[in-house]
Batch of 4 targets.
Target 1
Amino acid sequence: MSLTISTLTVFVALVVSLLLFTVPSSIQRGGMLNHHIHVGHRRHPTRHTATTITTTSHDDNGSQQSVQEVSTRQGRSSMNQGDSEDDSPLFNTYHNYDQLTEVLHHYEHKYSNHSRLFSLGQTTQSREMYMMHLFKAVDNDITMGDESGDDEIDAIDTIRSSKLNRAEKRYLDDYINQRKPCFRYIGNVHGDEPLGRELLLRLIQLILDSVTDVNNGGSSSSDPYVSKWRERLNHLLSLVDVYILPSYNPDSYERMSRYNANGVDLNRNFPDPWFSHINQEVQWQAETENMIRFIHDNQHKSDDGPQRHFVLSGNIHGGSLVVSYGYDGLPSSYGTLSDRSGIYSASPDDDLNRYLAQQYSNSHRKMSYRESNYEFGGSPSYGITNGAHWYTLYGGMQDYVYLNDGSCNELTMELSMQKKPAESQLQTYWDDNLESMVQFMEQTYQSTIGGVIYCNNTNSVVVVNDTRINVHLTGKDGHNVSTTDGVYYRMIVPNMVYNVTFFSDDYTLVYRICDVRIEAGRTSILRLDVPIRVDPEQRMTEGINRLNCDEYFQPPPTVASLAFSNLKDNQMRVALFALVAFIALFVNQ
């Protein structure tokens, strides 16, 4: 009898162990997600970013905290092993306006499925301000998991109502996929700083070659850069619309001058938020008016499709080696203009700006190092600076974009100590900056939350696209972003915890999502759709009006449950197998 019991016990242990090893991990983890959002990421197979080991803990208040220990820097080490394979004459020389125009038109013709060339308008001397739009056909990238239980999709929706049927979910997916987050690079704001012009021209070709190469099965390009970068750049373009303006000031490039044809510094020509009298004295230039019109149009339906949602922008300059972030100016309470240099001027998104700037500097070959950057390298700057703390300027593009272009953050990259490096050095600057430029673009989805604001208590799902909805992050007073087409995007600092509040201008709608946190290195945005209510006449009424997060959302997991859930799947299964085997042996005794 004892033998039969022992045999039965061992048999049960084997069956349980077999189940533990074969049950899909998605089922084992089922039910662990709640409205306190802690979303990890899966590594993209060809990423060249830092490898990290992540552990989760709680602070004294019970909030989840992530501690990341960097074990390797694959990005920098791989770049330092010689990326100078391509010495194409096209990229070892500066391009004048006619040459630039010819190359851009060639790109649009050759890569017509993924590019569209357009002009912001004409400059003072009637040259076109060409901008290239790089895109990939929508293939349902910013989507949700569905009833199939696919938890391998990074964009996890923990807010969407379970009452939505499959058709309604697909409607929202299609709607947001037509309104991807947008990224922008601008070069050559000052005509005598042309490095950005050449880097961006080459970046356009690399992105387009990479997407085309992937579509052709990886055999259409002989450029060794393409084979190295095609997976990352293809993934980027599947999630983000990229806009590149190689030369903001083509008139001045022809004369190799800082100022435009009217002798005006275009980076001092934007409406200033601090001094209204400056705005009254300034004559707006054609280039400035074109850019302001473009920024204004971003908030509305564009000529080539839906509203553009810019999330991040990089403005490339020369003359130093540093990433500068806003604010560039200071309020009038700090005294006269001459009294203000050296004072730190923090924007509401100062933590985000510092994070983004440090990401660029750290992945650059030289920017953060003292031995290669005597002005800003090493402690305490490590290649970044607050604009006003470096020197104050008023009427700059960076502050204007932050305050007027929706949810867009703009940083300024000074990429060369010489304003115009020798042509023989262009390849070196390309290799120094390529990883940084790509990583900076990737932040558009790695550090962003977004979603659709909709109502579903009518006969069908309706996107709230005629009402201004404001999106507020905890601690970001003074900088609410807004949307009028029902789609929102907002950058946040990875591993920091936020509460996100949605409200209309008259505060009739209030909806809050608590404890939102994303981890660095995500492979897509964190999508959080927001359901609200409307009355039969389609007027907005009060939404989920509970501002106390603890009242509306479940409490976070305990320390014990977090420690258990952070075990790797195989580790968990082995531990359970050992436990069952121990029980079997004990009973056998």
Target 2
Amino acid sequence: MTPLEYIATNPTYEDSKTKWLAFSTELKDTMLAKQATLNTSHRVNPIELTDGRWACRGAAVTEISGGVFTPLFQLLDLDLLNTATIIEDDEFQSLRPTEPELI
């Protein structure tokens, strides 16, 4: 499911807490560059996944229109944003890097 398809379902904040936005390095770099131009304390902090994609909480997607991340998402190209996918928490957990064991 794309971010715009997800938004069309009118997700609740509670629902979005079990979802993640997974996206390319290109979108991550664009997001961070655009974010750097904004004067806000609300930041997207992507996590690198083991398959080469990046992810941030799905709750950020619910803030696209009329929320704290609206200024950031208004700066993004919608076609590029729509290359991202919404994934479930179990998929995110399976792609999350494991912490190295301390010896």
Target 3
Amino acid sequence: MSLYCLEMRSTQQWSDVRYRQYTRSLARACKFELVPKIQFTDSGHGIVPVVTEHLRMHPRQRTISILSDYVQKHMKVLRKRGEKACL
């Protein structure tokens, strides 16, 4: 069973992570990819959802919940609509 890392990262500085959680649910990881990008109109950069498979050889990083309200709001909408991203 795979472990997935769900992150919201800045396109301007990739090391700037605003949200990080881990899940074993492939369905949740697929829906997370559909969370809308946060676009900053002045710079053209934004914050995008990124899903990666967590490799066991690397320790887990700390969870970050700065954008948890934003992510949970959109995940709830996707769940209600029955959106499916993965096959």
Target 4
Amino acid sequence: MVDYDCLTLTIKTCQRTKMMKCEQLEDLANKRKVNFEDLNIVVGPIERLFGQGIKGGFMDLDCFKKSEIEMPYEISKGIFVTPPLIAIDSVDMPSPAEQASTLVHEYAHNLYSITNPEHESKYNKDPKLKDTDSDKYWHLYLTDEDERQAHSEQVKFELKSGISVDEMIRNKVGGQVTKDTYNIALLFKDIIDDAIADMENEK
């Protein structure tokens, strides 16, 4: 078995290695009237590579500055990265299918940051909000326009991959829908319904 710290690649490399096809991302860029640009991708144990508390996702210059990550940053011996990039945690998402789905989500964030540079998300202003008021956190998270668009594109990708609506909802709430996660499921189902409607209109 090959022992490695991480895998660095690009979206186009993902396409060539069959990790995913990026036509959806190219179409999304065209729809938002943004030139499709390849991005560096880091797949690996993100918190170990970048530091405690960093879970990955779309990492732009502002993210590097807020997390006090030096640039260029050496993620492994002789491998340096600079923002913007997409970091995918292989610990939480070990399968290529999960990683491809996450890539679609995070690239949508990249496009949103280009078309809406002044956008500020409210759900992450208080790092303790998810623990102190879970309902408020999830409402802010799943009604945030940047997150809604990113989740919508991810939903479209997963539907085309054969994942059912029920499975997507269970994945979002961490298993079965319960009294505590019912509101989260409703908010996410609303995103799914909008994504399905978009797909019907795009036919």
